[in-house]
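Researcher: Please generate the 3D structure of the following complex. Treat every line as part of one assembly.
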Amino acid sequence: MRISEKNTPEQSGGLKQRVISALLYCSGEMQQLHSHMQDKPYLLQLVEWCLRGISRVILLNNPLSGAVILAALLLESPWQALLGTLGLLASTFTAIILGQDCEEVSSGLHGFNGMLVALLMGVFSSAGDWYWWLLLPACLGGAATTFLSSSLAPIVDHWDLPVSVFPFNTVIVLYLACTGTSNPYFPNYPAHPPRAPESTNQTQLHVPQLLQGVVLGVGQIFACGTLGPSLLILGAVFIFSPILAINALLGSVMSTMAGLSMSVQHRFLYSGLSGFNGALGCMVVGAFFIFSWRTLLLSVASALLSAYTDIALSNLLGAVGLPASSWAATLIGTLVLLLTGKNLKEHRIPTGKVTSPEMNLRSHKEWSATNDYTTTTDA
Amino acid sequence: MRISEKNTPEQSGGLKQRVISALLYCSGEMQQLHSHMQDKPYLLQLVEWCLRGISRVILLNNPLSGAVILAALLLESPWQALLGTLGLLASTFTAIILGQDCEEVSSGLHGFNGMLVALLMGVFSSAGDWYWWLLLPACLGGAATTFLSSSLAPIVDHWDLPVSVFPFNTVIVLYLACTGTSNPYFPNYPAHPPRAPESTNQTQLHVPQLLQGVVLGVGQIFACGTLGPSLLILGAVFIFSPILAINALLGSVMSTMAGLSMSVQHRFLYSGLSGFNGALGCMVVGAFFIFSWRTLLLSVASALLSAYTDIALSNLLGAVGLPASSWAATLIGTLVLLLTGKNLKEHRIPTGKVTSPEMNLRSHKEWSATNDYTTTTDA
Amino acid sequence: MRISEKNTPEQSGGLKQRVISALLYCSGEMQQLHSHMQDKPYLLQLVEWCLRGISRVILLNNPLSGAVILAALLLESPWQALLGTLGLLASTFTAIILGQDCEEVSSGLHGFNGMLVALLMGVFSSAGDWYWWLLLPACLGGAATTFLSSSLAPIVDHWDLPVSVFPFNTVIVLYLACTGTSNPYFPNYPAHPPRAPESTNQTQLHVPQLLQGVVLGVGQIFACGTLGPSLLILGAVFIFSPILAINALLGSVMSTMAGLSMSVQHRFLYSGLSGFNGALGCMVVGAFFIFSWRTLLLSVASALLSAYTDIALSNLLGAVGLPASSWAATLIGTLVLLLTGKNLKEHRIPTGKVTSPEMNLRSHKEWSATNDYTTTTDA
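Model: Done. Output below.
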């Protein structure tokens, strides 16, 4: 509603105005669609919840973004897209059965962890595509994440933090530690540490591949290692919020540079595996803080910290053949939200009030304009 | 008092009624005995506290159960029973010296961690039975658990959680990491991961041994690996609460099935080592939730999660030669108590009000009957 | 002010009285200097803050102690002293930029973690002294510790705990895991576990070296492995508080005995590496509890627990080539501050009111004298 007000001067623009209207309708949280769906059949509502759940993985809340990401996953690998959808459904249904808050379920908050777990099970499985037994752990793992988020909620709530992807990270590490590489039913590929082995001489850096790796860094949040799907995922972020899309790319760049400074193996840089933790760490700041030059510096710092922490954790966990998945970004992101310094704290948005960065910025400006005494915040 | 009211119709039954009276007197928390002991000599009171402490290991609170378990331990190995008793005394006395809450000490809450630590020190020691130097770490370890529970209490209290066996698990892992396998004074056996080595071919499953392993799973909570003592321990649980005994067996069955699904080494299944974390995880739900078909499902889920987490942690810690002891059940049990879904939360009993499941059920029913608006809980 | 009142009887003592006055002026927290500096130039104030920050590492709060310790570090290695100062400045400036509480910054609370990180980076670097690239991670690491303390503060505040050296321990472990031993830019020495290898026969113990190791244990808090600087550091502690100096030595003795009982390698005992966690663990009790025979026992227990935990963690982390730095003392110290037993809790000083042990003792006595009902505390 409020978005369309902005367009009143263009009301006579005809087609152009209609296109802009449609674009604005699709951007942000799409609250209009959400209210519109309230009286639709249950199955249609469930589809909206699940699409929002898919977009939640990458800090969005927009069913259209979710649909674009699902398309990207189908393009990357239909089998993994199936697994992810199954995990998403399993965790959403578990949340409904447990009686979790209805508003949370309908905004997709109980689906994204399950989706990621199922997706990563498929990525690490060495049994090949269409290995149907894998549907079993995908369902169980998805359900387990809902248990975990339900349990972690009262603890993190106490400091106004989101549960974030802690459940996913915990469940996937436990699953991989449980099954291992030689399990007769669910064998996995081992994870390798990014640290270059002592004997090898690193070949020269290939700059175009490095640049591609930056884009792939955004895709690797969904374990996508090819360019097309990664660009689609970046587009999905752009639909929700251009600011977040810039954050994602900026984070991936900083993270790749951190990887270069630690001379990680080149294939980590080229595949985007070096970039995705930094991208996530940067996006957390973009999503939970009012955009300003101060928070931009903070997002760079968060990206660098996430990237270095990821290298450290990957080296440590790689020693026992486990991946660090997104532990680094999750931990650093959580710590960043806890920062107490008064120069940053005033830019922090309470967890329950977070919408898209553009909307946050707008409501902050309106609020600042009416409250004179808050003008000092930008001083 | 209230238990005997139940028997008024049978008052004329003579011998039969007397036996039932005696049985009912011995079941549950034996509060009558507790009040009866208040004015007895200190040493006699201490015996009651310690016996309750022994039973606390397996979530009971009944001195008779404690005595039966002590008998089972003596039957299994007198040396280990001695060590366990010493650890129990050390931690109870430390609690008294530190000035812990008197009510807590007298209900055995400051003894069970110390007992388990001393018991496990004996089990892992490779110096043989009656190696008297081991009394030293047994005492110190027992005292250390009391320090730890005293420190953890204000943290877990905040979310109405019990300290549980976190102190035991922490101290035993630190002790084994400290001493290791080649220590000249306190050598230990290394712990092996349950994951089957890649080269070996698993032989065929022996079903009777598997069934025995389910019962041994209950005994392994006290590190008992033989059938007689395990049955005695199961009997001790039955004395306190038949519901908990069913939970223990159910958990052990689920846990063994989880072990089968991950194809762990057969000796883990046969010895009950696969079962005990599931049994504990299942019993936590039985003890802290009102019994209903919903919580029965939850207890199955808790047993499965505990079992899989145990395999994962055992594989991880086994890589450095350490056992996962009961970390899995303790962590999952704590998370289950934190669940926020409204369908489960209404069945959760506040930590301070937990008695035996049968009593919980009865007081819940009485309470439901008087409060009309709570009838929705079983809808 | 109050300290000088004590000297009124000696007012006619001339030179002797002046010396005592000067000594008393320099001991304790030197609040007079702090108030005196308020209207001095910013740069001079910054020097005071940083010197206090140096002394904070070892639980002091005295700029003179800080200066003595800086002298000791310069004596040990000018390069490492430079690195430490840089880390100190980096973390202090980050705190100012983040807008942390001014009072905290001026009392050095945001400098000591950064200093330790930079110092240890220098110690572990295998690239030799004056390797200028190391200034980069030293600055970044210092800044990272400030982020971490700012984030951890709201969590630990909840239980009235100090942030302590958790940020240092986290950052240094992540840095070493990130770079490793074969990094082309920032190579490090690997850390070795204290556990003696199975093959070696321990030679006979050399008692004078063992005694020297006890003193070096105090120096090892600043990674000083030679006698002169260690004695200077001990002197710096004595300036702030003789009680703490005794605690430091007592802790180092207990810790060395714990090392002997676990038969760690002799070079750990001789170099003071066995002693420093115990010294710190013992000093925490000295600093945060009113001095009495009860808290003296507690400080011995804390030293022993810290020492054994340090051996366990060093063995575990040593398996992946990482040091346990002061994790053990930090964890045990934090747990000791959480103790709930009423016999100890009444001796605990609220975190915000901690000054030097002598002052704590004096204000406690004054307070006890006026409040009759508190006389039971020493009963």
